[in-house]
Amino acid sequence: MDWGRSATPLSPTVSESKRRTFWCCFCLERLLANGRDRIVTFSPDDITTQFPQSDENFIYGHQVQTCTLNCPDWSTEAHNHVEKETIMGYTIRIVHILSQIISWNGRGGRHVDTSFPWLTGTAFNKLDEDLKRWVSIIPAFLKYSPQNASAMIALGKGKPWSMMWMVYFQARAYLHREYLPFTPQEEYDPFKGPIDGPALSVPAPKDFWHNSAAAMIESANAISNLYQIMKKRGLSASAYPIPGLGLLTAASVHVVYSIFSWDTMCNIISPEESRSYLKQDMDAFNDIGQRWCLAIHWMRQISLFYKLNLLTKQSWANNNDNDISSMNVKEIKDGIMNFVRQISLKDRQTRDVNLKPTFDFDGWMSAMQSSVSQEQGMELGDLEIAETGSLSTVYVDDLQVDLLNNASGMFYLDGLAEMGLSGDVESLVEEWGQSGLE
């Protein structure tokens, strides 16, 4: 039956096309996985496909040996027998690292893994070292810098170069954000580390928490700035939704640091600076929303997150006895961290009716402040705060989400949208407790 006959050799062009198709599927799966109900299916140990070769070799039909995902010496000079890695190869590696970070977080992160993150061999330390290792092997001409950005754009490689660094900064911010409380307590200080979740009985090395917070903030700022570079330099920033994944991570960091102020972090970022970055983030979401309805979901989630943290800060000022720390931070995080949703018809209609060419950030901020000031215990349901020239409207969908029956646990902030803008912190705590999420 000719079953054992060797397959007809493929031409270099066809072979390379198949390689690239496979790695596109690999990256897409990794970028969409959340570590919980959307897990990865490609096992790295089973992948023997070589990385894509350079565009020049592809165009001229050359066939050269490239490295693989499991190459043991990929960060050393020991694999000089293969072609030097391209932007695509480096991108595949950083996407894989990002996927590992998201998977660790999706399995519970620091709320399950109680090991000390500064110790060698722990999950956090290993992932952080993988990121540092990746950066260390990037050639000088591909490093992240204004000069290289201009050079890559001039060479016609601005898009893949920008996407590669967007994924890196998302991975770095995502990893270090794990130790940022979702709603900080009044006693919290980033310089001293988290005080929520499982306690760490051993003090961290000097400046460990400060450096971790700095890495998170620097990466969040880089994501925001990189999108603006892509937008201004005509790199089709909003043509793909992938930058939005990084922007959601960045915006969540900027929300916290625009609301709360810590003296120990003033040399890194101030609330005013963070608010300026948040303005860039929301403008970027608005830009992506011109083409992708998913941006409406992201804008809603950031609005809810901003609202919740405003309520937290207000509870401090009012000496409110509501114990925000009793809220299950990890579960509520899913609303921000599970960044892909099925978009409803209402979301599409919302975009068509309300999305304007530019985002009215001041109007949005005013709407947020106004919603916090509203009378406690207002009727739940659809809430619209009139916009002032652009999308400053906060939409609270009546999603009818039954948290008790939600086995996947992926709709917590959507459920929060149904009740959260009432502004009653005590009712939020009570609702989470009734949902069995503590």
TrEMBL record:
Residues 10-134 form the Xylanolytic transcriptional activator regulatory domain. One of its GO terms (cellular component) is nucleus. Its main location: nucleus. This is Xylanolytic transcriptional activator regulatory domain-containing protein. InterPro entries: TF_fung (IPR050815), XnlR_reg_dom (IPR007219). One of its GO terms (biological process) is DNA-templated transcription. It is found in: Nucleus. PANTHER family: ZN(II)2CYS6 TRANSCRIPTION FACTOR (EUROFUNG) (PTHR47338:SF5), ZN(II)2CYS6 TRANSCRIPTION FACTOR (EUROFUNG)-RELATED (PTHR47338). One of its GO terms (molecular function) is zinc ion binding. Keywords: Metal-binding, Nucleus, Transcription, Transcription regulation. It comes from Clonostachys solani.
